[in-house]
Amino acid sequence: MVLVFSGLIAWDNQRIRLAYEQSQGRVATGWVVSMALSIYLDFINLFLSILRIFGRND
User: Fold this and answer.
1) What is the pTM of this model?
2) Distance of alpha carbon 5 from alpha carbon 11, whole angstroms
């Protein structure tokens, strides 16, 4: 899961960069919030996956 969410973070960053370049820096507010939320959730899920790996009581 860590690799999956790391890949999603990289993919979302590329998507944000592409949207920024295509709009010459004038991205609509709705898209900015949506993309920022997507990155935020990817980081949260990555953090939770790392906690699951290191938090096991065997």
Assistant:
1) 0.76
2) 10
